[in-house]
Amino acid sequence: MIKTSQKNSIAEKFDSITILAEWKNKPGFESIKSLAKKHFSNFHRLKFVYVIPSKKIPEDLPRVADVYYLHTKDFGWQGKLKSNEAKSLFKENENSILLCSDASTNKYVKKIILQANNDLKIGFESESLPNFDLAFRMSQPKMEQLFEQTEKYLKQL
To answer: pTM for this one?
Structure first.
């Protein structure tokens, strides 16, 4: 349940935001990171979780604080996260947001969205993705528009 109050900033209403995406490449990583810092820098905690569509995590991935990687071996045969460490990424305290910055149909991204314990789940509106608490319909899903619309909406809360 989201607490309502007279707080003025997004960061006071929500403690953390988790950006979820499928790993594509390093330029994509840098793009998401810079957009998130531009639009959500006032959050107490900003973390990134990338799903790697392979059985092994490549060695050349950026090793940065608050950036986490999950690969197919982190999921059981029914799609549930196996390790407590992986589960803890989505078991937040109150007032947390999960922002799926991807319009992909990666089955592991879908499973995470369904299992996540965040107060507010935000993403693109799509028949191939689970329903979000807040979904933005865009003819050409663009991450920058998603982040802008999310920031605008959160300021209205």
So the answer is: 0.85
Count of residues in the chain: 157
For each of the domains in the chain, give its residue range(s) and CATH number, in order of start. Answer: 10-156 (3.40.50)
- Look up residue 8 and give its amino acid: N
Q: CA 52, 58, 64: angle at the middle one, nearest 5?
A: 85
**Residue appearing with tokens 């314990």:** 117
Q: Order of strands, edge to edge, in the sheet holding 45-52?
A: 67-71, 45-52, 16-22, 96-100, 120-124, 134-136
Q: Model confidence over 74-113: pLDDT tens digits?
A: 888 888 888 888 888 877 666 889 999 887 778 888 888 8
- pLDDT of 142 > 90? The answer is no
Mean pLDDT score across all residues of the chain = 83
- Label each residue of the chain as H, E or C: CCCCCCCCCHHHHCCEEEEEEECCCHHHHHHHHHHHHHHHCCCCEEEEEEEECCCCCCCCCCCCCCEEEEEHHHECCCCCECCHHHHHCCCCCCCEEEEECCCCCCHHHHHHHHHCCCCEEEEECCCCCCCCCEEECCCCCCHHHHHHHHHHHHHHC
